[in-house]
Design brief:
Layout (H helix, E strand, L loop, with lengths): L1 H24 L3 H26 L4 H28 L25
Length: about 110
Amino acid sequence: MQLIGAVISLLGAIIIFIGALGAFRMPDVYNRMQTGTKATTLGSMLAFLGVGIAVPGWIGKIVLLVLFIIITNPISSHALARAAHYSGIKLTEKSVRDNLEEDYPDEVDND
């Protein structure tokens, strides 16, 4: 079981590493945030589950950690992206559409 847990944890670490590389390649803060959130959510879940498989006594705590990550990581990323948009951080020129543009009052300068 330790070998299976180690392989799953390694897979999680690889996904987190690929997400970190993706954050360097993305053109703006919103794309970077999306890449980082998806990678850290899946990567850390796999890393923790691998530890839970390798050390069966920790599986209850690991399940709670995974549930916490599933709930909080996307919510915090969404809140940060909304705050970045509200503060006026521009999208990349390659962006086709800004769905939040009409959600903010006129006194906020999004240029």
